Amino acid sequence: MACVILPRFDLDVFPMKFVLLLALLIPVVAMAGQEEDFLAAREAFRKGDAATLERIAVRLKDSPLEPYLTYYQLRMHWDEQDTGAIRRFLSRTEDTPIIDQFRGEWLKYLAKRQRWEEFATEYRRVVNVDAELGCYALQLRQLSDEEGALREVRGRWFSSVGQSESCATLFDAAIAKGIINEQDIWTRIRLALEAGNVSLAKQLAGKLPKQYPFPVAALDKAAADPERYLGKVKLDKDSEAQRLIALFAVHRLAKQSPQLAHVQWQKIAKDFPEAEQRYLYGWLAYQAARALDPRALEWYKAAEETPLNEAQSAWRARAALRAQNWHEVWQAISAMPPAQQQEGVWRYWKARALKALGQEVGAEMLFTALSREYNFYGQLAAEELGAAPASGILTATQQAGKEEFAALQTLPGIQRTFALYRMELRTEASREWAWATRKFDDKRLLMAAELAGRNAMYDRSINAADRTVAVHDFNLRYPAPYREDLQGRLREHGLEEAWVYGLMRQESRFATHAKSSVGAAGLMQIMPATAKWVARKMGMRDYRNALIHETEVNLKLGTYYMKNVLSSLDNNAVMASAAYNAGPRRARQWRGDKPLEGAIYAETIPFDETRDYVKKVMSNTVYYAKLFGQPAIPLKQRLGVIDAKNADNQKPIPDER
In CATH, what number does 483-642 get? Predict the structure, then answer.
C-alpha cells in the first residue's frame, strides 16, 4: 500500500511577520461583531422584518457574508415586478453556493408562473438540479418536444417515494398518452408497497383504469395487522390487486417474524402464479437474512432465478457468510449486477471465497487491486497479501509556500466557512466548504485541511484530507486533538488510545458541539439518557444535561461507557463498537450459532448505519495505532473471533444502557 504524502505545513517555523499577517487576514474581534450582526439579520429574515434586515445589510456590505444578506433581501421581495436586482445577483461572479441555491429557487418560482423564456435563460447556469427542478426543465422541453420529454420522465416514474408536483404533471400526461402504461402503474404500486409506502400505493391505485378497482380498505387492514389479514383473507386468484395486497401483507409480516410469515404464506401460496411465488421467496429470504435467520439461504434457493435488487443480493451473500458457505458466497456475488460486484466489500469477499475454494491466483488478483485502497477492506486485503498493518503510512514535515497558504486563507469562500462555523451554522459552513474546495487538486486540498485543522475545524479538515486522490497525509486524515485531556481517562479505564480515537473520529469528527438527529451530543456523541445513566453510575451528583458539550465531561462519560460495554462483551472491540452505536443487547444478539470471525460479524450487522460504523471505527483504530507509534496489531487480529451464542452471553445485564 504505497502512499505519497505531501509535506506538512508547519507554521510554527514561519517568520513572525507572517504570523502577524495571518492575524490581520482574519481579525477576530472585527469578525465577532460581524457575526453578531449576521445572526440578527438571519433572525430578521426568519421573522420577515425587512427594515431590520436592511439596516444590518448596510453594515455588512463589505463582509464575506454579504451574499447571504443579499439572498435574504431578495427572497423577501421577489414578487416585485422589477427583477433587475435578481438578475444582477445571479450574474455575480462570487463563488458561493448561496447564489446557486437562489438560482434554483428562482427557477422554480418562474416555472410555477409559466415564465418559460426567463426560465430557459437561467436554467443553463444552475449547478445543482434536484428532482423538482429537473421536471420543470422537462415541462419546458414538453412545449417543443412532448414525446421526448414524456419518454424521458418515464425513467423517473419507477420510484418507491412520492415525487414533486412538477413531476406529477408530466406523469399524468405520460399516462394519458400511454407512454406510462397500466403495467407500469402496477409495477410502481409494487415498489411502493415493498418500501412500506402505503399512502403512495393508494395514490397510484387511483391512476389505474376504472375496470380494475383497487381494494383500498383491504390494503389498510393488511398494513395495520398483516397476520390477522392473512388469517382471514379469501383470495380471488384472478385479481392482481388482491394478490399484490396479500404479498404486501406477507412481506410486512416477515419484517416482524420471517417464520410466522412463512407459515401464513404456505396457506395461500397455491393461489399465486409461480413467478409471484418466487418473487415472494426472494423477499422472505431477504427479511430472514436481515434477521440472521439460517433459513434465509433455503428461501433464496426457492426464489430460483427471480431478479433480486441490490439489497436482496447483498443479504444473500451475507447469509452465506454467516453460514460460512464459501461456494454460495461466490455464487451470490457473481450473480450481482456488475457495478455492485465492483464495490470494495464484494471484491474482498469474492477474493476470500476464491481463496477458500482453492483458486489462489484469482484471489490474489482481487486482493492486490483492493490493497491499494485506504479503507477497511483495503487493509484486510493488504494483510491477506502479507503486508504489515497500515503499511504505506509515512510522516514528513516541511515548510510550505507562505504565499500559497496566505492566498488560500483570503478566499471569500474559506472565510465564509470559518465565520459560519464559528456561529455554529454547520450546514451552511459545510456547503460553503464543499463549494470552495470542489475544484482543488491534492496539494490545495491538503493545504485547506491544514488550515481547517489549525482553526479547530477538524471535521472540515478530515473532509478535505480524505478527498485526495494520489497524494495523502494521514496526520491530517486522522487528527488527534484533545490528547492531553484524554490521557487520564485512558489510564483510569485501561482503554487503548487508538480505539478511542477511532471511535471519536467516526462519532463526531472532533466537533465538540456536534449533535446527531437523534440527540447524541459532543465529542463522543453520547445520548442524553446514556449520559445521565453513566453520571449516576460514576456518582456525579451535580450532573445536568448542559454539561454534555463540555470536553472534559463528555470524555469522562464517553470513556466510562466505552469501558463498560467493552468489559461486558468479552473485551472485544468489534462488539463493543457495535454496542456503542446500537446498544449492548443488540450486539449480543448478533452473535452467530457458531463462532464467527470478526469481519463476518461486522459484515452481517443488520443495521446499515451500525455495520458501516463498526468497520470504520476498526479501520480508524489501525491507522491511529500506526500514527501513535503503538504496537502494530493486524486488523484481522483486532477483529478476532466472536464466540457463538450461549446461555451465559445472552443474559441481559442488570441496569444496562
Answer: 1.10.530.10
